[in-house]
Amino acid sequence: MPQDILIVGGGVVGLSTAHYLAQSGHAVRIIERDDSYSRSCSEGNAGMIVPSHFIPLAAPGVITQGLKWMLNPKSPFFLRPRLSPSLARWIWLFAKHSTKKHVANTQELLRDLSLESRRLHVELSEQENFPLAQKGLLMLCQSEAGLEEEAEVAEHAHQLGLQAEVCDPTRLRELEPNAQIEAKGGVWWPQDCHLSPQKFITALRNSIEKNRGQFIIDEVTKLTAANGKVESVTTKSGKTHQAETIILAGGIDTTDLAQQIGLSLPMQGGKGYSVTLPTPKANPLLCSLLKEGRVAVTPMGDTLRVAGTMEICGKDTSISKARLQGVIEAFCKFYPQYQPSDFADLTPWVGLRPCSPDGLPYLGRAPKQNNLIIATGHAMMGLSLAPVTGKLVANLVAGDEAIVSLDQLAPGRF
Fold first, then answer.
1. Is 122 exposed, middle or buried (0-12, 13-18, 19+ CB in 10 A)?
2. Which CATH superfamily is domain 4-409 in?
């Protein structure tokens, strides 16, 4: 039975959800605060679809490495110390989950979600006519220790049935003939893909409008709940909206809205930057991740996007020139045809990734309001997991069985 559905948030997760719901005949409205997307974490991201990322953000060694990086202003990680009970709780929960047991308990779930989302990305690219590069991803390493670590991840992937090939420099040159690479070796993940987030967003918006979905430019400031349901949402303009089903897909801002109805969603904004070269000297064929610099490199048509950093900083979207310079310098070390001066006149983009403390999304019905569905907390995998998230939400609305158990993703798990 078609429903009247209100979606809060017009990033890739909200749009993917709206696409599948509108396609199923539901009356969909999307409230998005900024139609330019300059305040979301979707439009300027690295555009990677990554079945290779089956290890959650909360994993052994992450905290130790993060503490080492804290003293370097150009490092890829920074946590801004501040007196905040929510930050303290998030750090405690993150540390609690950074274990081998947690990785073992979540790797198959992340694999299944990623592979299904990849399949849906391919399907969407064919149906909605946007380009999707199915060429794989290179994890590039400049140190022997880094290469050994990634080779272990590749072996782990083989045990999960994923494809991965450890490469020497000769093999890297075969896979990447378009650009010079300075690396001791790497791992090729042939199942990974990349796309232009902007073209993906445009295709989803067109599909939603074609299926009579409506966009409302406003900002939700209040949820009103009673009798086991969310009765209405109020926006900054003072308008009130009601719907049979309400979906919160507003990234990091979902935390404050959920608190209004007594739902704790521990999340921190993980700030990231990107810069896009409009006329690159030598545009790579494949997207890549640079192990030692924690930088993402993605060819997008005739342009080249370089992205990086993870700053746990609340909702601050200011740009650290030193940390942005660290991203650019790391890129140039791996791709020696470029110099930092090539980026001198480019305007950087900044976005806040919604990071849960266990590295898993929040996906499912709210524990106390049965007409409220939460879909957020994807961290660096929002674009990668957007289609499967949208499909799973559509299944929840229809009452259909999910392709995977959502127990580990339950919004009330903390």
1. middle
2. FAD/NAD(P)-binding domain (3.50.50.60)
